[in-house]
Amino acid sequence: MNAARAPHDDANGGLTRRFTLSRAREQVIQFALLLCALVSIVTTVGIIFALVSESVVEMSGSGKAFFQEVSAVEFFTETEWSPNFAGAQQHFGILPLLVGTFMVAGVAAMFGLPIGILSAVYLSEYASPRVRSIIKPVLELLAGVPSVVYGYFALIFITPYVLEPIFEDVFGMEVEVFNVLSAGIVVGIMTLPTVCSMSEDALRAVPRSLREAGYALGSTKFDVSVKVVLPAAISGIVASFLLAVSRAVGETMAVAMAAGNTPSTAVSLLKGHQTMTGFIAQMSMGETPQGTIEYKSLYAVGLSLFVITLVMNIVSQQVMRRFREVYQ
Amino acid sequence: MSAPSPVQTTQLLGRGKREGRIFQVLCWMSTWSSVAILLILLIGVAYQARGWLDWEFLTSFDSRRFPDKAGILAGLWGSAWTILFTILFSVPIGIASALYLEEFARDGWLKRTIQINIANLAGVPSIVFGMLGLTAFVYMFGLFGAQGTFQVNQLSFLGLTIPLPLGRCVVAAALTLTLMILPVIIVASQEALRAVPPSLRHASLALGATKWQTVSRQVLPAATPGIATGVILAVSRAVGEAAPLILVGATTFVLYAPGNIAAPSDIVENPQGLLEAPFDSFTVMPIQIFNWAQQSKPEYRQHVAAAGIVVLLAVLLLLNAVAIIIRYRSQKRLNY
Lengths: 328, 336
Hints:
A: MetI-like fold; B: mainly alpha; globular
């Protein structure tokens, strides 16, 4: 609700509108504020224009767009990604990058989701206010740590001190310096605060009466938490899951540092894989000249990334909205 | 269905209890694991940085060959300039947008569209903002320069020379970061404005104040602590962000500070540098850390990078401490 509306806004009964300086000033200010609010719309239009103009339709006068030189069929079905090679060796199939991206996101989800959801259950059902007052700031701190720091953590700690002892010494498998598993684990840690706080909000929104009904039927705390509260909050938890995966897909620095730069369709967690964001970061580090097909491939990958994350975010919001309707 | 015998009931209850116990322990472990992860991360980084983080590290530029001579000075100044301009651009636009949406806009398609748009922008990956920045600010859609629509290379007034297109400079980076953190600032400011009780507005309007007088003299001051907290959190996100800046052209190896101002005393000696700095090339702390972590020499990869991380985290902690102090003081002063 928009509270407090100025009296002259809906004053038409008997009062005549006079032109005064202060009234004109009000109008000018309101218009200026509107312009600022429109910046966000312009941003969205700008993003779509920038991505589309280099990849789909030629608009900014810098030669043919990406998909006018490389067919969409090749882009989506070819299984090789080698923009830096010349001539016949140059392939633009986004599949390897998609495989890398979703492997990292999958590991992140498998690592971050169970911990996030169990933490949320603990915080909403079991924890004392004192424990909450410790955990909440810790989660905020985890969320505030920059992603380069997580990349460093994956490279310097997780791979040599966690993965190598487990996989090389126990199972005798080779762990590469850059590997999907370490990148996925740190991205999982990065998404943990989001999953935890969103799921906790969903769990706390479940009405008390539902829990009390459970207890009245003789259920234990475990039964109430797992069989009553969790199912009732499931849409909020699913929304948090989707948002977390979308974040993991768009995460750049940690992945660019830890997951390596080898585009490949082989599903192997202990080897390096390039992701979509990793490719964009690596490619733009090398000062690719504007107008070349390699430069435009950046925008084609960027557009794919934008569409994937946008769809996931919108689905997440829709799921969230449905969950709100249940109890309000 | 026959009722369970007393023995069966006790067994069932026992199993239920055990299940509950195990579940609770699992939840407990997950919750505290985040504390453990944070501690391991902080202690590990501090351990790797010890002996490498000294005054020299803070006051010298990078070095390609000698890890013990490498420093973060270029990143510190670059980050400072970038963040200064990011704040200058994002705070007025962010607060103005929030004011429009909360205080002026009528409920209708326009408000709804802007609101949905902001929610979706908040979910766009930061690197996509980098691509927008590259096209819109660094190259300016190819409108200027040799083959562009406008054959202008620069714009000068009052001794300030603005290159066109902007190129890879501090201002282009700040504009990119501005667009990235705007949704966060707008949402936080909207929440702060919503927390101001309507009675305050009613009282002001009843005394004959105009809409803008009410908003600027009553509502905005009351919402300032909340807005400031949100702004600081958004800015600390910009401080740690590297992905969009890789695209907008923060260079990994830089041996100068923007405008050649590498110490506060340089501002006095070289005031012209203040005008040049916004359009100079630059690097920022996260990019330097990223660069060090990728070097082949283990001293760079492990220790110099760790020292850089400690500096970056210290800056972020400082910013967050300011946010906490503002929140605490406003809670004591204002009570509705």
